[in-house]
Amino acid sequence: DMPALSNGRNVQEEKPAQEEKLLDQQEQSRFARMRQLNALRMEQKSAIAQENFERAAELRDEIRTLEADES
pLDDT (tens digit, 9 = 90+) per residue, 18-61? Predict the structure, then answer.
C-alpha cells in the first residue's frame, strides 16, 4: 500500500497559534522609521541628481532630525 498523502505541511514544523509571535508595536515603529528614512534618502538623491540643492538640504535636515529621535 502507498502511504497517505499529507497536506504538504510538516507536522513537526507547525506551531500552535499562541506560540507564533507577531512583531510588537515597538518593532513595527522601528521598521516604519526605517522605511521613512529610506524614502527620504531616495528623494534626497533624486533632488541632488536634479541639482535641487535647496530641497536636498531640507531632506538632509529632516533625515538628521529623525535619526536624532532614534537615539
Answer: 455 666 888 888 899 999 999 999 999 999 999 999 999 999 99
C-alpha cell at 36: 521613512
Q: Cα(57)–Cα(44) distance, rounded to whole angstroms?
A: 8
- Which pTM value belongs to this model? 0.65
Q: Where are the alpha helices (DSSP H) in 1-71?
A: 25-49, 53-70
**Residue with C-alpha cell 534618502?**
41
Top-confidence residue, 23 or 2? 23
Per the listing, cell 536634479 goes with 50
Assign 12 to helix, strand or coil. helix
Helical (H) or strand (E) element with 20: none
Q: In whole angstroms, what is the distance from residue 40 CA to residue 66 CA? A: 10
